[in-house]
Design a protein that fits this description.
Blueprint lengths: L1 H15 L3 H14 L1 H23 L3 H9 L1 H21 L10 H17 L4 H11 L8 H32 L5 H25 L1
């Protein structure tokens, strides 16, 4: 089981490198609200990745077939979410979340990133490719499968932790007058991600 956990960690790290929309969200939220907000954003994405890793490792073809059949609709919803969050980030001010209880704030940050992560059915294909690369088939035992999924979670969450920590370090070194510009840039990046997803969905 230990080898499966290690393989899962490696897969999670590799899968997490192309950060995409969640990466932009993590950076922007870390800049706005601190490292805890960045970690909660990454946590939502890691949980979504674990769900797709479960589908891949346990060979849940019924679920994967359903997701692929409705892929365009799911991607459209995901694109709208990304675009809406990007626009809201550009308009939001850090003070908007200050009066919200920590538990409610954390839930909102988690659910929003989870929603974006789970509206990407092609993640299943990425995991299937990664599993085949590491010679893991869909007939793994329960213990090995759980170990693999746990490793994927650890790997992806380590990546988000590194991103949040790096942002905090750079924020301390950056000049205060540059921070609003950086926040705006990552908000624009998120809007562009959403627009690209919707455009590709229309083409399909």
């Amino acid at each position: 089981m230990g080898s499966f956990i290690l393989k899962g960690i490696l897969i999670g790290l590799i899968f997490g490198v192309p950060a995409g929309a969640v990466g932009a969200m993590t950076v922007q939220r870390t800049l706005n609200y601190g490292m805890k907000a960045g970690l909660l954003t990454g946590l939502g994405s890691s949980v979504a990745d674990c769900l797709y890793a479960c589908i891949g490792v346990f060979g849940l073809t019924l679920i994967s077939d359903f997701l692929f059949q409705h892929q365009n609709i799911i991607n459209f919803v995901g694109g709208c979410l990304i675009l809406g969050m990007g626009i809201r980030m550009l308009q939001a001010k850090a003070s908007e979340l200050e009066n919200i209880p920590d538990s409610v704030r954390g839930i909102k940050l988690f659910i929003s990133s989870f929603a974006i992560g789970v509206t990407n059915p092609t993640a299943i294909l990425t995991f299937l490719f990664a599993f085949s690369w590491f010679s893991i088939d869909g007939q793994s035992g329960l213990a090995e499968g759980i170990g693999l999924v746990a490793g994927v979670f650890l790997g992806t969450f380590c990546w988000w932790s590194v991103i949040s920590g790096t942002v905090i370090m750079l924020e301390k070194k950056a000049k205060n007058n540059r921070l609003p510009i950086m926040k705006t840039v990552f908000g624009i990046i998120l809007v562009l991600f959403g627009a690209v997803v919707l455009y590709r969905n229309v083409l399909n």
